[in-house]
Amino acid sequence: MFRRALLPAILAMLACQPVLAREVTTREVTTRAWVENGVTWTETTVVEVEEPGSERIAGLPRADVKGVASFGPFEVLDGSRAALVAETDSYSPADFQKMLRVFPGIRMLEMPDCPGTVDDHANLRLGRMIRAAGITTLVPEHGSVRSGAVELFLAGASRSAAPDAEFVVHSWIDDDGHEPDDFAASDPVNRAYLDYYREMGLGPDKASAFYALTNSVPNDQVLTLGTADLAQYAALN
Predict the structure, then answer these.
(1) What residues contact 118, with CB distance under 8 A and at least 6 apart?
(2) Which of 12, 69, 125, 151 has the fewest CB atoms within 10 Å, i.e. the most exposed one?
(3) How far apart are CA 143 and CA 48, in angstroms?
């Protein structure tokens, strides 16, 4: 049975966290090389570009987990395991790539306390990267996966969660304050999520039902699901 829950403490912290008001940017890097008087010169230009998009986040900004190395929201626990411990943003796909270059043996992503994302576009890219890398996802005992982080859990090549794990969902909100119901069901902004869920192994009916469930809750509220609840939509080990 679903447990519909308002989390006053979390939402109060959410309201005052500057991360929700920050401008999300991405880095465009261009490099050119030329030869002058027999000398080869190289010029690299980095441009910060604001990347508009939706966001879904609830909770504290970073979990109290310390590994052997940090890459943005990721903490490397050992040669085969990493943990997601903070919200994802525009830089997170690049952080993930860097982590795998340094630790190519990582095969599991643990998710002990994951607040969500401030850039859903980048978050979905990251999810596809996790799936392409064949990495499994695990929510340990007392784990909490919230908002946009749920999409990253679904990205696991295989997925498992402790019986007491919680999954907090709600609708996204874009830079103009629009939520999913402000767009037609067939609009590309909504289709992007349905396509993603199908890519992550949810059948068409399950993908539609799960997206409808998340969108049944406004962005400023939350719905808490248990492991058994989520298993009705996505296969878990």
Answers:
(1) 19, 20, 22, 24, 55, 57, 87, 88, 89
(2) 12
(3) 35
Q: Give the Å distances, CA to CA, from 165 to 46, 103, 140, 150, 201.
A: 41, 27, 7, 12, 21
Within 13 Å of residue 74, how many CA atoms lie on the same side as its CB? 25
Residue 158 burial (10 A CB sphere; 0-12, 13-18, 19+)? middle
| Dihedral angle of Cα 99, 149, 24, 121, to the nearest 10 degrees | 90
Cβ atoms of 208 and 131 within 8 Å: the answer is: no
Contact 102, 133 (CB under 8 A): no
Task: Give tens-digit pLDDT for 109-157.
Answer: 999 999 999 999 999 999 999 999 999 999 999 999 999 999 999 999 9
| Tokens describing residue 155 | 């990205």
**Quick one: which of 56, 82, 58 has its CA closest to 68?**
82
72: tokens are: 């943005």
Closest by CA position to 152, among listed 56, 219, 68, 59: 56
- Render pLDDT for 201-226 as a digit per residue (tens, 0 to 9): 999 999 999 999 999 999 999 999 99
pTM of the model: 0.76
